[in-house]
Amino acid sequence: MPIEDDLFEKLRVELRRGSLVVAVLGALREECYGYTLRQLLEDAGLPIEESALYPLLRRLEAQGLLTSEWREEGKRNKRFYRLSEAGGEVLARLLAEWNAISESILRLTGKDK
After folding, report:
1. Which of 23, 56, 81, 90 is the most exposed place for a label (fewest CB within 10 A)?
2. Contact call for residues 76 and 30 (beta carbons, < 8 A)
3. Quick one: pLDDT at residue 55?
4. Confidence category of residue 18, pLDDT binned at 50, 70, 90
């Protein structure tokens, strides 16, 4: 892989990491379990590996942004996640910040015309 491709990939991963937090918080306004969330993200064009998703979910829950509950469904125990009240407030603020950044980037790149 040429160095430019390697650099681009590193920068893409960095950009994507923060975007996934906003996407996960937004998706979890509706309760779902991990596998369903992973499918929702993939269907929206944001695929994520299980090895990245579950640590992210645990971190967001530890930060008080999500709640979770174990329930039996289809004879299997599944952990269902949902945005907490604090998570909803943080999501609203992050989306406002996201929109402001997006507008700034569009202005700087001349794409707002």
Report:
1. 56
2. no
3. 96
4. confident
Q: Which residues contact 17 (CB under 8 A, 6 or more apart)?
A: none
SS3 73: strand
Please give the angle made by the CA atoms of 50, 79 and 86, to the nearest 5 degrees: 95
Q: What is the 3-state secondary structure (H, E, C) of 24-52?
A: HHHHCCCCEEHHHHHHHHHHCCCCCCHHH
CB-based contacts of 24, cutoff 8 Å, min separation 6: 37, 41, 53, 56, 57, 60
Amino acid at 74: G
Residues in CB range of 90: below 8 A, 6 or more apart: 25, 65
Both structure tokens of 74: 């289809």
Q: How many CA atoms lie within 13 A of 85 on its CB side?
A: 0
